[in-house]
Design brief:
Largest sheet: 8 strands, mixed
Radius of gyration: 21 Å
Number of strands: 13
Oligomer: single chain
Shape: globular
Number of helices: 5
Strand order of the largest sheet: 5-7-6-1-2-3-4-8
Helix content: 25-40%
Order of helices and strands: HEHEEEHEEEHEEEEHEE
Distance between the termini: 24 Å
Length: 250
Amino acid sequence: MRLRTILLVAVLSLAAACGEATSATTAAPAGDGPATPVALWGAEGGFVTPTVNVLRPPRVVLYGDGLVVADASRQLRLTDAETGGTVAAMERYLTGQPPTARPSPGAPSVADVPTTVLAVRGKDGKMREVRAEALEQVAEFYPRELMDAKKLMEGLAARAGTEGTAYTAPRVRMVAEGVDSVEGKPARWPAKVPEPDGPADPVWRKDLDGEAASALARAVPAGQDHGRPIFRTASGKVFVLSWRYLLPDE
């Protein structure tokens, strides 16, 4: 079933649930193909390192063909019905919400936590995004629909973790963060991996594919839990290297 049909199912499901005609923001495709996100849950900001900030992927992306990618590390394939139902639910939860949601008066101030981003593709082909600062910490001061949307996407992330498989891709995003002093001896810069050719302010970023991506993955294994991968360039500069797989739409 093509994306257009999937989202038509979502529209009809929403209409049945609401008992009225669908709104102007009813989800509809921007075009067929697996690289069309139709729903998303992510995070922005917060007290994180520059490397984390640049590398951080969406927590969950649902694509029009049913592909779910969680944290750019796990994947799951939904059925057509599940995809349509998820889009319909997200559209229902986010309709009427402002682009930047604010907690009701009396909410405590919470610092240094990420802003939650929730999104669904609208009838005009654009992603309808809603941002809510400290949503989880002060959930009772936000509309219940925002937490419902977050919980729906959290469920997909949990399923990807238990039912899904590892996500890999032929393209990666590399981040090099300069360091002033290190303990021990930095490794030689990996062959075939490009060295930073510009300022690392605060980090240097480059998307790689082919041999360069493979060489980086060999030099810095995914999921390693020991030490920091520190390398020295031919010019003597020292960097911590990090990377993640790129998503289909990146």
